[in-house]
Amino acid sequence: MDRIVVQGGTKLSGVIPIAGAKNACLTLMPATLLSEEPLTLTNAPRLSDIRTMSELLSSLGAEVSSLNDGKVIAMSSHNADNHMAHYDIVRKMRASNLVLGPLLARHGQAEVSLPGGCAIGARPMDLHIHALEAMGAEIELRDGYLHAIARGGLKGAIHELRFASVGATENVVMAATLAKGTTVLKNAAREPEIVDLVKCLRAMGAQISGEGTSTIEIQGVDRLHGATHPVVTDRIELGTYMLAPAITGGEVELLGGRRDLVASFCDKLEEAGISVEDTPNGLKVKRANGVVKAVDVVTEPFPGFPTDLQAQVMALMCTAEGTSVLEEKIFENRFMHAPELTRMGAQIDVHGGTATVTGVERLRGAPVMATDLRASVSLILAGLAAEGETVVSRVYHLDRGYERVEDKLGACGAKIERIREDG
């Protein structure tokens, strides 16, 4: 099992290109099931989760090809006639549940295993189920699978989500593109990945309005055609690498970075004393005066502070001046990285969904273990700032969401390497 070894204490300087968004690409790929014509995605990230989604779509009968060193994904579902998403594939990744809506819309039936992924909270499927049931689907849970059927096809409906779930919003929007009549989804999630999905679906011929707001309206059409669509910049990778010069010192430009994707995050960085500057090619980040000040953070749905950047900003707060309070309001059980940071000398007190972090002068390198995707990269960030050597194990989590992290950080002067181990 691979490990990442980091020698801390080096300021970073250089340029980091930001990849296409993992969470957007994993949503866009199932959209191929909605059409018999080809769908091509450009600016795709090269990640293990993308390979897992490719495997899942192939198992459903779609043709999936990786081109241009993985940056282009060409798909065709003209022969996709299987409607069963098996546990062996779905268990690897939470986003696998996003085939449910497209399968129902295209075939009128679906059998989808309950999904897996990082163990950071319940993330219940009931939001997806209730919305699709409002559209005429009959869904039953048997033997770990959701058995869904839409007799006579899905029908437009007015439905309000109990919680502004990103996944449920995506599933419903895709399903509604081929439903009969108009669907109005209230309390919809507003994330950039949903806006990107709607852009792609619209390019395929869907009639959708309201993306980026809490109410999305979809007028069903008889069929969708093919399209080519560029995947939006990964705002979580962007935010993560913005923290690298913040925690180590130095100055790094993030190519493809856009402030509008991480506006609330930028606000917190600037409050902490980090300079964020727009450039013609992206964003440039550096410490404004050499001191990082403690700031309080509350995770919220977009456009609030992203839960997927909470672990990384905690690493920054571990060496900040003062005490910060981080409140996690999206997922329970998402402070599993705190004990590992404590092994490095951090002072963190966790009570339920709140973590109080008192900054220390210096973290110390230590052997630590990644517990989930975002926690893994938070430990690497901490290692960059720590004195001595940090060894991060179980980095298979990391490879689900970050492509070639050691190359990107290494190009800016970080002393970081991957130790590959067979088996």
Q: Which features would summarize this protein structure in a list?
A:
single chain, 423 residues, alpha/beta, four-stranded mixed sheet, 13 helices, 26% strand, elongated
Please characterize this protein's 3D structure.
By secondary structure, this protein is α/β, with parallel strands linked by helices. The chain is 28% helix and 26% strand. The protein contains 13 helices and 24 strands. The chain has helices spanning 22-28, 48-59, 87-90, 100-107, 126-134, 166-176, 192-203, 235-248, 263-271, 310-317, 338-343, 373-385, 405-410; strands at residues 3-7, 12-17, 39-42, 63-67, 72-76, 84-85, 109-113, 138-142, 145-149, 158-160, 182-186, 207-209, 215-219, 227-230, 250-255, 274-279, 282-287, 297-298, 323-327, 347-351, 354-358, 367-369, 389-393, 415-419. The strands form six sheets. The chain has a four-stranded mixed β-sheet. A four-stranded mixed β-sheet has the order 2-15-17-16. It is elongated and about 65 Å long.
The helix count comes to 13
Task: Kindly report the spatial arrangement of strands forming the biggest sheet.
Answer: 22-23-1-24
Biggest sheet record: 4 strands, mixed
| Uncertain residue segments | 117-123
- Percentage of residues in strands: 25-35%
Q: Roughly how much helix do the residues carry, as a percent range?
A: 25-40%
Tell me the Rg in angstroms. 21 Å
Provide the structure class. alpha/beta
Report, as a whole number of angstroms, the end-to-end distance: 6 Å
Mean pLDDT: 94
Question: How many DSSP E strands?
Answer: 24
- Shape field: elongated
